[in-house]
Amino acid sequence: MGYRIKEAFYSLQGEGFHSGRPAIFCRFSNCNLWTGREADRAQAVCQFCDTDFLGTDGQNGGQFKIADDLAKHLLTLWPETNPTDKEPAHPHPFVVLTGGEPLLQVDQTLVDSFHEHGFEIAIETNGTQKAPQGIDWICVSPKANAPLILDEGNELKLVYPQADCPPEKVAGLPFDHFYLQAMDDADPTIQARNLKATLDYCLAHPQWKLSLQTHKILGVD
User: Fold this and answer.
1) Active site residues per annotation
2) 22-46: per-residue pLDDT in tens?
3) Which of 7, 107, 116, 171 is most buried (CB neighbours < 10 A)?
4) For the stretch 128-143, what's the b/e string if a residue is b when 16 or more beta carbons lie within 10 angstroms of its beta carbon?
């Protein structure tokens, strides 16, 4: 069936454990918790998503019939090593698979192809799908009222607050790192309230670290 990619671009990771790290972002089309259409937001399981993941019309987006084609396409976005360097400064391109929900499309064939091309693979998922073997970094962002199938990994990043998914509900899961990220809101008063609540919770529960969307703060795509 191939792979449908909304967009792909080279930038800095803005959130969580790898914040500040250069990466290729590969955004897969479609999600199982929201159609991506504003008319359907009120009925969606996840109502606070701020990402456009519909279609394949974004920068460097498209449809790729085989995994190798997608891997080669993404490699073109990684900066070339200076040929005068004795050793590559970044021998393994870092790719972040995101969405939408990437695990609706990411399969073992794609993971294996990425590794054959030297990629280090990270994925950002809502945790409602199983993951193929070999993904190097798994970041799960649970959503209230959605089943959590992928309940272990490297990083759990919870958007806060979610009334039906409090941090204590997931704090005991086998993840290496736990992050809280304040929920965005168009109303600056609510946004400030969410950030204050997130700060307070992290200070009261030091298992949790604060994740800021630094790419938005810096104006980085």
Assistant:
1) 25, 31, 46, 49-51, 124, 215
2) 999 999 999 999 999 999 999 999 9
3) 7
4) bbebeeebbbbbbbbb
